[in-house]
Design a protein that fits this description.
Elements (H helix, E strand, L loop, with lengths): L1 H26 L4 E7 L10 H10 L5 H12 L11 H4 L8 H23 L8 E6 L8 H9 L6 E5 L6 H15 L4 E7 L12 H9 L4 E7 L10 E10 L4 H5 L1 E5 L5 E5 L3 H20 L2 H20 L25 E4 L4 H10 L4 H14 L6 H11 L8 E8 L3 E9 L24 H6 L5 H6 L8
Parallel strand pairs: 2-3, 2-4, 9-10
Antiparallel strand pairs: 1-5, 1-6, 4-5, 6-11, 7-8, 10-11
């Protein structure tokens, strides 16, 4: 009897040890953001209304209909006059870029942001264990990761990853790589570098489906310092709760809706197909289907199931009066995401993208404000746009301890990626928004392009319109 009692005690203690070890191991797998640094170009690189006009006029292959299309696209873009362009655009060389233009654009971003981030955080470049760089449309040899390692003299055992072709959702793909490395390696620092190279990617043709990209994208980037060091938890800004990736690359329509191709004249550009909104919606819905149970409270999921059941019963009993399940304005998720999320960090792909996500998730203007203001101030900076939205929230002092922040991004392929962060402490840091934050949101978000070009409503207007009269 005593032996059995002793054996039982040892067994219980051993099981407790295993449970404690498993719990302790999971604590070392957490992913924290210690700091991040946003990139802001110099003032001479600001792309105002006048200079947009000059760049458009330089494209001699455009006809009157293409001018009208471009001007209306800019008018409706939601982009303001303080976004940034690459230097070769401002020098009039956008149609004949060199390899040097792409390299210098990236090095200017790397050397500015990484240096500032490391200096502010007190972490030296020799302490970095993981380096992930995502720049979709520029691939150099040696790789961009190698350029960073060479410039900052990082260790030879750094785990380096260089991602290309992953589109605007690449930030969260990079984050997923870091998260998975943290699961099997303790006490590591990771540097996530996200940007896009515009210098070599201006489309100089007249295909409408390809010139639209010229209107939307602007220069930007962000560097994020992450760790899984338990001892640094008190210094962290955000803690990663979950991350969901959805990739519809196996679907031909989704794969083909956003591609880098050459037009009939051999001019390279990014093709945006008419079926892109449909592909994005489908990827978004599939992503939410996986994400919702991970981030929403049980009571909200039960309420949604109950309401869905009632609707189905009603449709069965009254088939003639049953609708399509969509509102006239577009599809809605039916779930109340505000029950599990405090702030929404949305990809600034364009005004229509922000409006569409807001409609689907039933968000108010307060929720959409950070994305709208980011689009207005910095434009679509591709994969780094999420971090400018986060920076706006921080500059507005919205992020308080315990708040939950949902990031949603879309990218070519077609992909929809999302993740949920928990704010570890009240955030009131300084970033690139500081010099403008008091003026946002403005009382009237007037579009400068609307004032100068908004009256163009038909081909006759475009015919009679001399593009550069307003400059004289």
């Amino acid at each position: 009897m005593e032996f059995l009692t002793l054996f039982s005690l040892v067994t219980v203690l051993y099981l407790c040890f295993l449970i404690w070890k498993l719990f302790d191991q999971r604590r070392d797998q957490e992913c924290y953001i210690l700091d991040y640094q946003l990139y802001k170009g110099s003032d001479e690189r600001k792309l105002g209304t006048d200079y947009c006009g000059r760049i458009i006029e330089r494209n001699k292959s455009l006809g009157l209909n293409e001018y009208k299309f471009l001007l209306k696209a800019i008018v409706n873009s939601g982009i303001g006059e303080e976004t940034y362009a690459p230097r070769n655009f401002l020098e009039g060389r956008e149609s004949s870029p060199t390899l040097k233009d792409g390299v210098e654009e990236m090095e200017e971003f790397f050397q500015d942001t990484i240096a500032k981030l490391l200096a502010r955080s007190g972490v030296s470049s020799s302490e970095i264990d993981v380096l992930v760089v995502n720049v979709s449309m520029f691939s150099d040899v040696p790789s961009l990761t190698s350029r960073i390692m060479n410039h900052y003299k990082m260790r030879e055992d750094v785990k380096a990853f260089n991602l290309s072709g992953m589109g605007c959702s690449a930030s969260l793909i990079s984050l997923d790589i870091v998260k998975n490395i943290f699961k099997s390696h303790k006490n590591k620092y990771a540097l996530l570098v996200t940007s896009e190279s515009l210098s070599p990617n201006w489309y100089n043709g007249n295909e409408r489906s390809m010139i639209l990209a010229n209107c939307l994208f602007r220069t930007g980037g962000c560097v994020v310092l992450l760790t899984n060091k338990r001892a640094l938890k008190h210094k962290a800004m955000l803690k990663l709760k979950c991350l969901v990736r959805t990739h519809h690359g196996a679907r031909d329509d989704a794969f083909n809706c956003c591609r880098q191709i050459e037009d009939e004249q051999g001019r390279l550009g990014v093709y945006l197909g008419r079926n892109l909104p449909k592909a994005a919606t489908r990827a978004f819905v599939d992503n939410l289907r996986v994400l919702s149970p991970k981030i929403l409270p049980a009571r909200e999921l039960l309420r949604f199931l109950f309401v869905s059941l009632i609707k189905k019963i009603t449709q069965i009993s009254s088939p003639k009066s049953a609708g399509t399940g969509k509102s006239r304005d577009g599809p809605r998720s039916g779930l109340n995401f505000k029950s599990g999320v405090d702030h929404f960090c949305l990809h600034t792909g364009g005004k229509a993208v922000i409006d569409g996500i807001g409609l689907s998730l039933d968000l108010c203007e307060y929720d959409l404000e950070p994305a709208r203001m980011t689009l207005h101030r910095f434009g679509n900076t591709s994969a780094s746009s999420l971090w400018y939205v986060l920076g706006y929230m921080e500059a507005k002092k919205r992020l308080k301890k315990g708040d939950r922040v949902l990031m949603i991004s879309f990218g070519a392929g077609f992909k929809c990626n999302s993740c949920l962060w928990e704010v570890v402490k009240d955030l009131e840091g300084r970033n690139v928004w500081d010099d403008r934050i008091d003026g946002y949101p403005p009382e009237s978000l007037a579009n400068p392009f609307m004032k100068k070009f908004g009256w163009i409503n038909n081909v006759e207007d475009a015919t009679n319109f001399k593009l550069f009269d307003f400059l004289n």
